[in-house]
Every structure is written in structure tokens, then in C-alpha cells.
Specification:
Length: 291
């Protein structure tokens, strides 16, 4: 008996060590990324960085000619442009995603629901550049301009299936007995959904919305051919607009702006992490109450 117990303890400790080692290997890339961003970017995030526009190439060259050791400027245009286009995208994607999720959760399997499910899965795996091309043909080309509207639509296209899946996941966690009890009380199906299910699911849906925003903040490729970018703060929905991801790409190609690139990357990671953590926290709190 003692021999068997000793053997089991050795095996348990061996697997514990294996799990710890592989967990550390899995987490290592994340720690390396965060460490490098903080190390190279934190020193350059200040008030000027947040409230001034990104300098143009001409302005950078002029500052270099005048022997300026520090490039004056910021990324206010990119911060506000990102919030602007993400707001447009979420204004479209969140309500559509919730409605689609409700429909797919409460409908029997038909040809239409199968097509919708297949379409959402297809959009989820479609390369973002293709979605950008479609939005360019639908919006940017007819209006003959790159714009915040086109950028917002490309964000909506990508986050719409994600929000739909989040809604389906949330609604499937609500006990079926609640819906059946509502129907037993004489309410019709629409009333049960609107007056019972949605109020119960609202915090879970809010969590899905925050997770969608965190996903939208990182979208880059379609914005290159829909929003294009801008050196100035733009509030015109039909004019080219900057974003943090576009600025990051432009800064990467400019050797004079490497410090700005690290700071922009760190700020973008902070924003994505912020919305992601809020979404996860809301979802966890909602699951404690509903399950």
C-alpha cells in the first residue's frame, strides 16, 4: 500500500511539473510582448502625446533639420479617429448581432438558419483584407472618397458575427425552464423574449458588447483601403480618418518615429485590455447570478 501511495505521489508531482512548465511556455510570449511594450513605450506617453496630432513627414524633417532631438507631436488624431470609427461600427454591429443571435437561438433549424450560421462562420474566417475590399466597393468607391463611414462599416462587418455568437452563448445559458414558465403563464413567445429573457440576459449582452469593442480596436487591414488615415482630427463621416492601428503601421515605416510607434502600441494594448477585462468581469458576474 505504501509503495503504491509513493508511486502515485511521484506521478502527481511529475504531471504537476509538466503542467507548470507548459503553462510557463504558453504565457512566456505574452510576458515578452508586454515587457517590451512597457520598456520601450511608457517613457513617451505624456500629455503632449495624447493631445497633439501626429506630425507629418514634412514636419518631422523640419524638426530634424533644426536638430531637434525629440520629435514634437502626438497621436490625438489617431485616438479620436479610432473611437469615432469603432463607435460607428458598434452602432451597427451590436444591435444587428443581438437580433441575429436571438433569432438563431429561438428558431428551429431551417434552411435559412443553416445559411445564416454558415454565413457567420464564413465571415469569421474571411481574411480582413477581403472584407475591406468589399466595403471599398460598396462605400468608398461610390462616394469617391476614403472615409470614417467606410472604416466603421468594415469594423461592423468583422465584429457582427462575433457579437452574434456572444449573444447565442449568453442566451443558451439562460435556463429553458424560465422561457417555459413564461409561456405557461399565457405570454406569447415575443413577450417572453422581450420581457423575460432579454432583461435576464442584458448584463451578459453588455459583456459581449465590451468584448466586441476590444476586438474592433485591433482591426487594421481593412482600414487601410477604407479609412486611409489622416494627420488631423476628423469629424466628417465622409473624410479620411486616422486610427491607432493605421498610425502604428505608418510609424513602423518611419525610422524617425520609432519611439512613437512603441508608445502607440502600448496605448493600443492598454485600451484593448481595458475593454476586454470589463467584458470578462461583467460576463463572470452575470454567470454567477444566472447559473
Amino acid at each position: 500500500m505504501d509503495h503504491n501511495k509513493t508511486y502515485r505521489n511521484i506521478i502527481n508531482k511529475f504531471y504537476l511539473v509538466v503542467v507548470c512548465v507548459f503553462s510557463a511556455i504558453t504565457l512566456l510570449p505574452s510576458f515578452v510582448i508586454v515587457f517590451n511594450l512597457i520598456k520601450n513605450g511608457i517613457a513617451y506617453i505624456d500629455i503632449d502625446f495624447l493631445i497633439k496630432n501626429q506630425p507629418s513627414i514634412t514636419e518631422i524633417m523640419w524638426q530634424r533639420i533644426n536638430n531637434s532631438s525629440v520629435i514634437d507631436g502626438g497621436i490625438a488624431n489617431a485616438i479620436l479617429g479610432t473611437l469615432y470609427m469603432v463607435s460607428i461600427g458598434m452602432f451597427i454591429a451590436i444591435p444587428l448581432g443581438i437580433f441575429a443571435g436571438i433569432y438563431l437561438t429561438n428558431s428551429k433549424r431551417t434552411i435559412l438558419t443553416n445559411i445564416l450560421n454558415y454565413s457567420f462562420n464564413l465571415i469569421s474566417v474571411t481574411p480582413h483584407i477581403i472584407i475591406g475590399l468589399v466595403v471599398y466597393l460598396w462605400i468608398a468607391k461610390p462616394f469617391n472618397t476614403f472615409s470614417a463611414l467606410a472604416g466603421g462599416f468594415s469594423i461592423a462587418f468583422i465584429t457582427f458575427p462575433f457579437m452574434t455568437k456572444q449573444t447565442i452563448t449568453v442566451l443558451n445559458k439562460i435556463p429553458k425552464g424560465i422561457t417555459e414558465a413564461g409561456l405557461a403563464l399565457g405570454l406569447n413567445y415575443s413577450s417572453v423574449i422581450l420581457r423575460i429573457v432579454i432583461p435576464l440576459a442584458k448584463r451578459g449582452l453588455l459583456a459581449g458588447a465590451f468584448l466586441s469593442i476590444s476586438k474592433a480596436l485591433g482591426i487594421t487591414t481593412p482600414l487601410i483601403i477604407t479609412a486611409l488615415g489622416s494627420s488631423y482630427v476628423n469629424w466628417d463621416i465622409l473624410k479620411p480618418t486616422a486610427s491607432l492601428t493605421l498610425s502604428l503601421w505608418n510609424l513602423f515605416n518611419n525610422p524617425n518615429m520609432i519611439n512613437f510607434m512603441w508608445a502607440t502600441a502600448l496605448l493600443l494594448l492598454i485600451l484593448i485590455t481595458f475593454f476586454y477585462c470589463i467584458g470578462k468581469h461583467l460576463n463572470r458576474e452575470w454567470e454567477k447570478k444566472i447559473i
